[in-house]
Write a structure and sequence with these properties.
The structure holds three protein chains of three kinds.
Chain A: H1 2-7, H2 9-27, H3 34-59, H4 67-83, H5 88-112, H6 117-136, H7 146-152, E1 154-156, E2 159-160, H8 161-178, H9 180-190, H10 192-197, H11 202-228, H12 239-249, H13 261-280, H14 288-321, H15 327-335
Antiparallel strand pairs in A: 1-2
Helix pairs in contact in A: 2-13, 3-8, 3-11, 3-12, 3-13, 4-5, 4-6, 4-11, 5-6, 5-11, 7-11, 8-9, 12-13
Chain B: E1 4-15, E2 18-29, E3 32-38, H1 44-51, E4 59-64, E5 67-68, H2 74-79, E6 82-85, H3 97-102, H4 113-123, H5 138-151, E7 156-160, H6 168-183, E8 187-191, H7 195-201, E9 204-209, E10 212-218, H8 224-231, E11 251-260, E12 263-271, E13 275-279, H9 286-293, E14 299-306, E15 309-310, H10 316-322, E16 324-327, H11 331-335, H12 342-346, H13 360-374, H14 390-403, E17 408-412, H15 420-435, E18 439-444, H16 447-453, E19 456-461, E20 464-470, H17 475-490
Parallel strand pairs in B: 3-8, 3-9, 6-7, 7-8, 13-18, 13-19, 16-17, 17-18
Antiparallel strand pairs in B: 1-2, 1-4, 4-5, 9-10, 11-12, 11-14, 14-15, 19-20
Chain C: H1 2-26, H2 33-39, H3 44-58, H4 66-82, H5 87-112, H6 116-137, H7 151-156, E1 160-161, E2 164-165, H8 166-184, H9 186-196, H10 198-203, H11 208-234, H12 246-255, H13 267-286, H14 291-318
Antiparallel strand pairs in C: 1-2
Helix pairs in contact in C: 1-13, 3-8, 3-9, 3-11, 3-12, 3-13, 4-5, 4-6, 4-11, 5-6, 5-11, 8-9, 9-11, 12-13, 12-14, 13-14
The chains are: A mainly alpha, B alpha/beta, C mainly alpha.
């Protein structure tokens, strides 16, 4: 049981999520409906995209906390260029460009200049937010065109265009990580020196991970603007922390090299389900942070203790086996 | 003359104003093992890193298979048929063995599955491809590294001190593999500190000192004295053991039926002023025994008496306060504070004896006395440890132990990665300590070293105490104890 | 090593002087002693949390939760005061909250052995959530906060000590204590050595957990101090009092010379860096730059300074290989 929980993190979290949803359903009738499922999905879209962006960065044993500001910056780029009369595809291209450029700034700082990623992205968190505020002069951007809002509205099979885009991204990331080059991202975080020793372009991989993070934050910015129809000053504030929390919950190790796309998806869905459930249970919104934070800490505590217990057991097993011949001594004797 | 597979022509390397290599020529031919020897800081590792494309040369040419290495990257060197097996295997702990071997190859790992299997079978080892690399033993990790070289069709393999973490038995196995690689036309570079190992497999030898080649000849035509003299002039051989030492009857430490992680039922005693050699193969439980004694690991049974009184440390500070000090085998990870000044390191076992408001002057004076008595070569007590050579770092660690004024000092592999000159110094320090009444347990896998130092020798195998031998026992006798019981448990 | 750190602090001091001269040329009013002195009340809270944060970072940890601890302590103090506890008791409640917050962080980090960043991110949320919920209990809304403090308390925010404004005085005293603690005592030595090599510290029998715990508790206490000073200064306790200290405080510690990998840093550097950052924002505002741009600039400052230091490190990494390092 212990083994299973720790080794099969995703399944455990899935069961917990289902249990929570059922419990909420019991307390608030009407919660368990297909519409709730699509609601959770669309409520979680922005968080999902940010999390998918940070995911490769964390796999390479770096961290990116500037996601929220990049989201804001790209949403503002989108809003300003639309309101300036650019066509939708052009505006979206500009937005993605802004996000990728912001990611490239992070990438240069970390991969080229060797600044620790937490410091670099904390700095750009402030920097990008400032650039965004300068661009808007501190005003909110309103009256976005209907064509943009349509991207966030339900269209095909109860899902929005952005919702479908996100699904495509999820599948793409999943396929990529199984491919040869996808492995490279995993192993850079697993052992950087070894990756360099084997001739992998470590710096380029790190750089591209940050650029990807910027691009995803731009997609999140588009989704954000499409869903709520305007861009406030504080768009995206704090979402990077929620994304990191969701990733940790989904079993992605901040030490790099460990994590699955399924973990990302279920981590985000769990977080969003809780938020949605709180609304359903008519708990005032100001409880959200307390509950979210307490939940994260509890999960970390349980997860950490489980891991330590498992390690202790593995260790005990190893020393127990040590009394019998080890595989190592067998190879010796085979050769001798 | 056999064709040359890889060649360095008058290669030099400067780090800023410091010249590390000064016009070095070096070559590897088809079907030979070329030994590379040199003290710490002689430039061996830098030379090999240049050959492998990990470090760019300041001047000179690097050629692999007759073509210049360009661009000078590890990927290019590997593509041209050269692979460096580093001293410590570079492992991706969360990936499978197969992925570990195949990362960086032009196709996905699954495409190489049958070839890797084939290579493993040809090397005569058992290794499951799906095993997570984190669970591999050190020797298996080294095999993964060698597999990486072979799967890349490397014609030249550089082995950087491959034997430092291996047991004598494993070393023999490695040598058999090296010889078979030589027969199949590979060129090998073999770096080691141990002359008898180099002699066992090498065809040619090159000795580096201070960035110059000081000796390069056929192995068969070089005598030990010649090689040692080239390596460090002034030191011709390791000093011999002082005979006829009388050890006190007073017992400092008594273990009875002690059990813990990786060892069971160990009963031992150590007398005052005695050097006890504790040896066996890696994994025999020696390090675990020492760590249990000082409270780094839990004890599962048995008793320990220190000077006749029961002793049970649950954390290292307990042991230090009662006079047992342990020096870990991994000095960089568990011993030294590399960025800290030398005198901080000297004080780090006895921080609890320092006044709350520190008096650095006193600590520096204390360091100064150790600097003189241990012969630490340094500019000032303020400089960080990582600016010293391996041998001097080890001496700083000894000063840290001595500052604690131990009754019993446990040294785990005290001369690993230390050159001959410093090794002699460390032997002398251990002898002086014992003469002054400190009991010393020296844990070592180097049977020669154990024989050289010990007043009594305890041999462990498979977690048990395999037997005790008197001073001056032969290395063969130790080897029999260390391996025999292993085979009986297996049978 | 010592020489290098000294050089860095001298460099920082030069940067501060340069900054003052430039702003003085743009706006001479900026250099008036009274505005230089009393302007500090707007930013010393950053320094108050940045100094113990420096200790946390040197010992190999990181704490981001202090930003909400500031508000949480202010709120618990406000509630204690609201329910009629005497001032001294209310202050004790505030400080105890801070110490407990630090203790909680240290304990969870210890129990889970997870990276401190993740754990304190979680508590950053939880503490601000707890503060919001608690302030809801006494019916205070987010903008006004909890008020109604005795005059003896609010007076502290504007009092003067030896001609210095109270917040500045408190900051200087507090950081002087920590300066001595870090650089001249056994505790400080342990902080450095644990940060440099935690494994070696454990093998040497050093009390690793106890020392790290104290660094977190000190940060919690400092957050409480900052929260109470701000409550006195503004006359009300609000949840978001510390929100604006998160980035500048980390910037101050890093700018002051603390290595995010542990083992390096200096209290004096952090103190100077606090003034560099504080006067930068103030100078920009007095020069007519909108506050949004000044916040962007302080983010940019962190990025540039760190990039500069790492650029230097990259350069020096090529130079210093002395014999022995090649192996």
């Amino acid at each position: 049981m212990l083994n299973w929980i720790a080794r099969d993190r995703v399944a455990t979290l899935l069961l917990v999520t289902i249990a929570v949803l059922l419990a909420v359903g019991a307390a608030a009738p009407g919660f368990l409906a297909p519409s709730t499922a699509t609601m959770i999905w669309s409520n979680g879209l922005v968080l999902m995209l940010i999390a998918l962006g940070v995911f490769p960065v964390i796999l390479t044993r770096n961290i990116d906390v500037s996601g929220g500001s990049v989201l804001g910056l790209s949403a503002v780029t989108l809003g300003l260029s639309l309101n300036a009369g650019f066509a939708m595809p052009v505006a979206i291209a500009l937005t993605l460009g802004a996000g990728l450029a912001a990611g490239a700034v992070n990438g240069v700082l970390v991969a080229v200049l060797g600044v620790p990623s937490i410091v670099a992205t904390l700095g750009t968190l402030g920097l990008f937010r400032g650039v965004m505020l300068i661009a808007t002069g501190g005003e909110w951007i309103e009256e976005l065109p209907e064509t943009l809002k349509a991207l966030g509205a339900k269209s095909i099979g109860g899902l929005s265009v952005m919702g479908l885009c996100t699904m495509v991204v999820i599948v793409a990331v999943w396929a990529f990580l199984r491919a040869r080059r996808g492995r490279w991202v995993m192993v850079v975080g697993d052992n950087r020196a070894a990756a360099r020793h084997l001739g992998l372009p470590v710096k380029r991989i790190e750089f591209l991970a940050f650029v990807w993070g910027g691009g995803m934050a731009a997609l999140a910015g588009i989704t954000f603007a499409a869903q709520i129809g305007f861009v406030p000053n504080q768009a995206g504030t704090g979402i990077e922390l929620r994304a990191i929390a969701a990733l940790v919950l989904g079993g992605i190790s901040l030490l790099g090299g460990v994590g699955t796309v399924a973990g990302v998806v279920i981590g985000v869905i769990f977080f969003t389900s809780i938020d949605t459930a709180l609304v359903f249970l008519k708990i005032p919104a100001y409880w959200n942070d307390l509950i979210g934070g307490a939940m994260l800490l509890t999960v970390l505590l349980i997860d950490g203790r489980l891991r330590i217990a498992l390690e202790a057991r593995d260790r005990a097993a190893r020393y127990h086996r040590g009394e019998a011949p080890t595989p190592q001594s067998k190879t010796l004797e085979d050769a001798a | 003359m056999k064709p040359t597979l890889a060649e360095l022509v008058s290669v030099s390397k400067n780090y800023g104003p410091v010249a590390v290599l000064k016009g070095v020529d070096f070559s590897v031919r088809k079907g030979e093992v070329h030994a590379l020897l040199g003290g710490n800081g002689a430039g061996k590792s830098t030379l090999m890193k240049i050959l492998a494309g990990l470090v760019p040369a300041t001047g000179g040419q690097v050629q692999i298979g007759g073509a210049a290495l360009s661009p000078a990257t590890p990927a290019q060197a590997q593509a041209m048929g050269l692979y460096l097996v580093p001293q410590e295997a570079h492992i991706f702990p969360n990936q499978s063995v197969l992925e570990n071997v195949c990362i960086g190859l032009p196709q996905a790992a699954s495409a190489y599955r049958s070839r890797v299997k084939d290579l493993i079978a040809r090397m005569g080892v058992t290794l499951r491809l799906e095993t997570k690399a984190a669970t591999l033993e050190i020797a298996d990790r080294q095999i993964v590294e060698i597999l990486r070289g072979l799967i890349r069709d490397a014609k030249v393999l550089i082995l950087d001190e491959p034997t430092s973490a291996l047991t004598p038995h494993e070393v023999d196995t490695l040598f058999t593999r090296m010889k078979s690689l030589r027969e199949s036309g590979h060129g090998l570079v073999f770096i080691s500190h141990k002359l008898h190992e180099l002699r066992a497999v090498s065809d040619r030898i090159t000795v580096l000192r201070d960035g110059f080649v000081v000796h390069s000849a056929e192995m068969a035509q070089s005598t030990d004295a010649e090689i040692l003299a080239a390596m460090s002039p002034g030191v011709t051989a390791l000093n011999d053991r002082v005979e006829g030492k009388i050890v006190s009857e007073e017992k400092v430490l008594q273990l009875s039926h002690l059990s813990g992680e990786g060892f069971v039922d160990i009963s031992l005693e150590v007398h005052r002023g005695e050097v006890l050699g504790l040896t066996g193969v890696v994994g025999a439980g020696r390090t675990e025994l020492a760590e249990t004694l000082v409270g780094l690991r839990p004890r599962s049974g048995g008793e320990v008496l220190l000077e006749g009184r029961p002793f049970h440390a649950t954390k290292p500070s307990d042991a230090v306060k009662q006079g047992i000090v342990h020096l870990s085998e991994d000095r960089q990870q568990y011993g030294l504070f590399l960025e800290a000044p030398l005198y901080w390191n000297t004080s780090s076992f006895v921080y609890h004896r320092l006044p709350f408001f520190l008096r650095p002057g006193r600590e520096q004076t204390r360091f100064e006395t150790y600097r003189k008595s241990l012969g630490i070569k340094c500019a000032s007590a303020d400089q960080p440890v990582n600016s010293l050579s391996g041998g001097n770092q080890q001496k700083v660690l000894l000063s840290k132990c001595l500052a604690a004024e131990p009754k019993l000092l446990i040294l785990d592999e005290p001369t690993r990665g230390v050159d001959v000159g410093a090794r002699n110094d460390i032997y002398r320090i251990i002898e002086d300590l014992a003469a002054a009444g400190t009991s010393v347990i020296v844990i070592s896998s180097d049977f020669d070293e154990v024989v050289r130092l010990s007043d009594r020798i305890a041999v462990m195998a498979g977690g048990h105490l395999a037997g005790e031998l008197p001073a001056g026992a032969s290395t063969d006798a130790i080897g029999q104890l260390a391996f025999e019981s292993k085979e009986t448990t297996h049978a | 090593m010592k020489k290098l750190i000294l050089r860095w602090e001298v460099l920082l001091l030069a940067l501060l002087a340069l900054e003052l001269i430039i702003f003085g040329m743009i706006n001479p009013r900026f250099l008036r002693p009274s505005s230089l002195l009393f302007g500090t009340s707007d930013f010393v809270q950053v320094g108050i949390v940045a100094v113990p944060l420096t200790l946390v970072i040197i010992a190999g940890g990181i704490d981001v939760s202090f930003a909400s601890t500031v508000g949480l302590c202010a709120i618990t103090f406000g509630i204690a005061n609201f329910f009629g506890l005497p001032l001294a008791a209310s202050l004790t409640v505030g400080f105890a909250t801070g110490a407990l917050a630090g203790l909680l962080n240290a304990t969870i980090i210890r129990l889970t052995r997870l990276q401190p960043l993740v754990v304190t991110l979680g508590s950053l949320y939880m503490f601000s959530g707890a503060a919001t919920v608690l302030s809801g209990v006494v019916g205070a809304n987010g903008y006004e906060g909890i008020g109604g403090f005795p005059a003896a308390f609010t007076g502290l925010g504007y009092a003067q000590m030896f001609g210095l404004p109270m917040p500045l005085f408190v900051f200087l005293c507090f950081s002087a204590v920590l300066l001595v603690l870090l650089h001249m005592t056994r505790f400080g030595r342990l902080v450095f050595q644990i940060g440099q090599n935690e494994d070696a510290a454990r093998h040497s029998g050093m009390p690793v957990f106890r020392v790290q715990m104290w660094t977190y508790v000190l940060t919690g206490l400092a957050a409480a101090l900052a929260g109470l000073l701000l409550s006195a200064y503004f006359g009300s306790a609000r949840v978001d009092l510390g929100g604006a200290t998160l980035l500048p405080a980390i910037t101050a510690a890093v700018l002051g010379g603390a290595s995010i990998y542990g083992g390096k840093g200096s209290v004096l550097g952090t103190i100077i860096a606090t003034f560099v950052i504080g006067y930068l924002q103030q100078g920009l505002q007095m020069s007519g730059v909108p506050s949004q741009i000044s916040s962007a600039l302080s983010g940019a400052l962190l990025v540039i300074v760190v990039a500069f230091r790492h650029g230097l490190a990259l350069l020096s990494a090529i130079i210093p290989v002395r014999p022995g390092q090649t192996n």
